Give the backbone structure.
Amino acid sequence: MVNHTPLVADPHNIRLAMLGMVEGNGHPYSWSAIVNGRYDADVMAKCGYPVIAQYLGAQPKENLGIPGAQVTHVWCDQRTDAEQVARAAYIDHIVDKPEDVIGHVDAVIIATDVGHEHLDRARPFIEADLPVFIDKPLTDREDHLRQFHAWWQQGKAILSTSCMRYATEFAQLREQLPATGTPRLIFATMLKDWERYGIHGLESIYGLLPPGGWQRVVNTGTPELNIVHLTHEAGVDIVLAVGHDLVGGYGHVSVIGSKATVRAEFRDTFAAFKAQLVAFVDYLRCGVSPVPQTETIEQMKIIIAGIRSREQHGKPIYLSEIQP
C-alpha cells in the first residue's frame, strides 16, 4: 500500500517560490498567474510574451487559481524581471537571492528551461529538503543526471515534466491509438532547439508507447534542425524533428498504423500548464509523485543521447550506454 504522506506542513496553505528567468521563457509570469488566480492585465500585456496575455485573457476567471496554493515569493536572474513578475501576478515578496526563500516557503518552482543549469539552481533547495519542481528538461548532462538519481535514491522530492505530458490533445490521441491497428511509425515535430524543446516533442509521444522500452537514438540533423530517429522494443519507429523555425510544426504528432492514421496538434497551452501545476501541488499534498522517476530518467537519457549522436555525426547511441 502506498503511504500518502504530505510533503508540506499544511496541505491547505502551500507557499511557493517562483525562481529564475531565462531568455525566451516567460513561465514565471504565466505560472504565477495560474497559481495565484489573478493578474494585472495591463502589466501582463507588457511582459514581452504576447501569447501569455492572450491565453490568460481567453480564460474565464474561475479557471484561474489553484485553491490552497499561492506563489508568495519570486526571484529572477534580473531584479527588474522579478519586480515585473511580482506586479503582474500579485506576489508579495521579492528576494535578493534564491536561497533567501528557504524557511519562508513550502516548495520551490524553478521556472527555467536550460537543462545544464538546473543542478546548480536546484541544489540549495534539495539539500534543504524543500520539494522542487524543475521546468523541462531536468538536465541534458549525464553526470548531472547521476546526481539527480542519487538524490531520488535518498528520498528527495524532485519533479520535472513538460506540459505536453498533460496536453488535452495528446490525451485524446492516446485514446484513439487502438484505431490505428498496430502502430508502426510515429512522426512528431517541435519548434526551437533539441536541448530545450526536445523534451516537449518527446513528452508529446512518450505516452503512446510503454515506458522502459526505448532503445536507440540517431540524430542525423544539425543544431538548427534536429532529425531524430528513435526505436522502441514494441517495434515502432519514431521520427522527431525539432527545429529553430518550425513554427508551423509546433506540437504536431501523427501515428501511422496497420489500419489507420491518427493525428493531433497542440493548441491549449493554458490547460496543459494548469494541469502540470496542479499535478505538482497534488504531489505536495499526497507525497506520491505523478511521474515515476524511471520515466524521467529514461527521457533524459533520450535527450542526452540525441545531443551525443548529433555531435558524433549521426552515430547510433543506445540508452544502455548512459548511466544511471
The chain has a mean pLDDT of 97. The domain at 14-163+271-288 is CATH 3.40.50.720 (Rossmann fold).
